[in-house]
Design a protein that fits this description.
The chain has about 550 residues and is α+β, with helices and mostly antiparallel strands. Among the domains are: about 100 residues, Orthogonal Bundle (Arc Repressor Mutant, subunit A), CATH 1.10.10.10; about 140 residues, 3-Layer(aba) Sandwich (Rossmann fold), CATH 3.40.50.10610; about 120 residues, Serine Threonine Protein Phosphatase 5, Tetratricopeptide repeat. Helices cover about 55% and strands about 10% of the residues. The protein is built from 23 helices and 13 strands. The strands form 3 sheets. Strands 8, 9, 10, 11, 12 and 13 form a 6-stranded mixed β-sheet that branches. It is globular and about 70 Å long. The protein starts with a strand and ends in a 16-residue tail after the last helix.
Length: about 550
């Protein structure tokens, strides 16, 4: 009989693969569960890393970092002292254990959870309703003005602003609005009080960058956006080679003005690995700026341009973490919605995983590389490993809206639609004006689709398409929701768009190649597109007689 154990307020049963806490089942990935089972069985000794790798990943060649990720996940759940790391030897389970003879009774099936509040929140954010202030210091870094007289230097000012936002986001004591929402104000003259209402923040950072030859001047000011009071201002004149020191100096000054209670040790977390080559960093920033536009516009030329810029940066500096992360992002977005050429999916997936892995190896604190890796792993069907990696990315940067959104997609594909919606709600709160909101809404639409609430799925899909009318992913969500909600007027227009602009994606999904890990959801999605295809074909062949009431969707329980 498989062993069962009790420790602290946990109960562990290997036979039923359950970990309970106070009678409530705990969510734990398959690899983490196997690791915990082996550590419990060998709790009287230190288990070498090599032995754990052999037992948890039998017959698989995986990076050593996978073990570190799973240990981290267990410590997050069980407590930091549950698993002891013995340097140069291995790991040992460190909590007192009682051997339980009676197996744990499996919990009764949970009742369906209806999340109407989330729907209201999504609709309110979509309508631009003013947001209340969060319970901790909140800040938005607005786009810096480019005063260089050269529009080609916009990316430099944008990169400066983005780096400050990223560094601020590492501090859990701050609520930081995502870069994408803040950048919706670019090129507009706005009152900071309006910004405060629309983004739900108290503090706003404004600034400008003037770059000439090898010198740069940066001016920054911190404003209490609720009262309009200027709290702090500074001007920096530096040689361009000192740019990264300057960014760290500005970031720490802002944090010191906004949240003086943050300890100096936390400020040190803002220091990051410097790119080895400034020219490569410039190219990586350009690629990062182009990648999102490419996917929103369904523009293969712009996508190839972003990829070319990232690869050029890596040719100049193979250890440029930002460029590697951009490659991983581009490949994840491509694999998730192969708009351009579905024949190279496997190669793109492999290149994305390799780039993310290298970025993580070079900088273990690179949160974005972790959550893009998580998404790529989920696209490859490795849901547990993808979830662990995406969660690590969120832990590294807890104010990153994209980290919440990517983890939400992983949870969606792993058949946890309610978890996915909760994560997307937080992503929307952190970035209420994000140009990627269409992806947030599309994820929520598919989550309602999993729950068979087709009316709500249709509402969210409509929002996704209204935000990004050229996005195939948004139209797939709308098509399948409209089929099951029997809104065949929308089926005709949305599926016609897919056939025209993304026929390869239609072929893939219609043939069963979807990322849904749940067989029922996968079959319903495939059937939905097949019904849409038949309906559109019937309309074209028999325009005078084809009627929407000729088509019915039949589901089995």
């Amino acid at each position: 009989m498989a062993a069962s154990y009790q420790f602290d307020d946990f109960e562990f049963d290997a036979a039923s693969r359950l970990l309970m806490r106070g009678g409530t089942p705990q969510e734990l990935g398959a690899r983490a569960f196997d690791l915990l089972a082996y550590l419990l069985a060998c709790r009287d000794r230190v288990v070498p890393r090599s032995e754990l790798m052999d037992k948890v990943w039998p017959d698989l060649v995986v990076a050593d970092n996978n073990l570190t990720v799973q240990v981290f996940a267990l410590r997050q759940l069980l407590g930091t002292h549950a698993i002891k790391n013995v340097p140069r030897r291995g790991y040992q389970f460190a909590l007192p254990v009682l051997h339980a003879v009676k197996p744990i009774a499996p919990p009764s099936a949970p009742s369906a959870v209806e999340p109407p509040q989330f729907t209201l929140q999504v609709h309110a954010l979509g309508a631009g309703v003013d947001l209340s202030l969060p319970g901790k210091p909140s800040i938005a870094v607005l786009p810096f003005l480019n005063l260089s007289g050269d529009v080609q230097q916009d990316y430099f000012a944008d990169g400066m602003c983005e780096d400050i936002t990223t560094e601020l986001s590492r501090f859990q004591a701050l609520f930081v609005i995502a870069r994408n929402s803040a950048f919706s104000y670019k090129g507009r003259a706005v009152d900071v009080r309006t910004v405060a209402r629309e983004l739900g923040v108290r503090y706003v950072v404004e600034g400008s960058v003037r770059r000439a030859n090898n010198r740069v001047r940066v001016t920054v000011q911190l404003i209490d956006a609720v009262s309009g009071t200027h709290l702090w201002a500074e001007k920096y004149d530096r040689v361009l080679l000192d740019m990264f020191d300057l960014q760290e100096e500005v970031t720490q000054s802002i944090v010191g003005a906004v949240a003086p209670q943050i300890h100096a040790a936390e400020q040190n977390k803002a220091r990051r690995v410097r790119p080895g080559n400034l020219g490569a960093h410039d190219l990586a920033m350009r690629a990062n700026a182009d990648s999102l536009d490419a996917l929103r516009r369904n523009d293969s030329t712009l996508w190839q341009q972003a990829l070319g810029e990232a690869r050029q940066a890596l040719a100049m500096d193979p250890q440029n973490v930002l460029a590697l992360t951009v490659v991983a992002e581009l490949m994840a977005r491509f694999v998730g919605t192969p708009q351009f050429d579905e024949t190279s999916l496997s190669d793109h997936w492999k290149e994305g995983v390799a780039a993310a892995r290298q970025a993580i190896d070079l900088d273990p604190s690179a949160g974005a590389a972790h959550h893009w890796m998580g998404l790529l792993l989920a696209f490859g069907g490795f849901y547990d490993d993808g979830r662990a990696m995406a969660r690590r990315g969120l832990e590294l940067n807890p104010n990153d809206a994209l980290a919440y959104s990517n983890l939400a997609y992983v949870e969606l594909w792993a058949n946890c639609p309610q978890v996915a919606m909760a994560l997307q709600a937080q992503a929307l709160r952190l970035s209420p004006r994000d140009p990627s909101r269409y992806a947030f809404f599309a994820c929520c639409s598919l989550a309602y689709f999993q729950l068979k609430d087709y009316a709500q799925a249709l509402k969210l899909a409509k929002l996704a398409v209204s935000e990004a009318p050229h996005s195939p992913a948004a139209h797939v969500a709308l098509t399948v929701a409209a089929v099951y909600a029997e809104a065949f007027d929308l089926v005709a227009t949305s599926f016609a768009f897919l056939q025209t602009h993304s026929p390869g994606y239609v072929r893939l999904v219609s043939s069963g190649n979807t990322t849904f890990g749940n067989a029922d959801s996968r079959q319903r999605a495939v059937l939905g597109l097949q019904i849409a295809a038949r309906f559109v074909t019937a309309q074209r062949e028999k325009p005078s007689s084809a009627r929407t009431d000729d088509v019915h969707v039949i589901e089995s329980d």
